[in-house]
Specification:
With 125 residues, the protein is an all-alpha fold. The chain has one domain (6-121). 69% of the residues lie in helices and 0% in strands. It has helices at residues 23-36, 42-63, 67-86, 92-121. Helix 1 packs parallel to helix 3 (67-86), helix 2 (42-63) runs parallel beside helix 4 (92-121) and helix 3 runs antiparallel to helix 4. The protein is globular. The mean pLDDT is 86.
């Protein structure tokens, strides 16, 4: 869980004035939405799904596509769900959204990135 010190939280990050530029800020935003929305409201589930997707897309767009960025995102998605288990604040639908986004990230982004790098650099064996 990214317990960012208040001076490390860029003013306006939560308000949407700035996009996250570190994995900790991505985790912070997704975790904060997770904790503030109600999964019993269908509109909140849709909003959470949109927030997770747009945060991932924006982070990749701003940081660039690299192994490190993709690894950071895999870690963030796994850690948010794990943190909510730790807090006993598990929300089945929201964790389903996290798992779905992780699967989508692997299928739509990571797989293509890995295949491109394989053809450029050869296999590891």
């Amino acid at each position: 869980m990214p317990y960012l010190k208040s001076e490390e939280r860029r003013k306006g990050l939560w308000e949407g004035l700035y996009r996250p530029n570190t994995a900790a800020e991505v985790n912070f935003l997704i975790s904060k939405y997770y904790l503030t929305l109600d999964e019993k409201r269908q509109a909140d589930v849709a909003l959470f799904q949109d927030v997770v997707q747009s945060t991932i897309e924006d982070y990749i767009k701003d940081a660039g596509l690299s192994y490190q960025i993709l690894n950071d995102l895999v870690g963030v998605l796994g850690c948010v769900g794990g943190e909510m288990l730790r807090r006993h604040n598990y929300k089945h639908l929201f964790n389903g959204v996290l798992r779905n986004r992780l699967s989508t990230l692997f299928i739509e982004v990571i797989n293509h990135y890995e295949m491109k790098k394989l053809s450029e650099n050869g296999d590891i064996v």
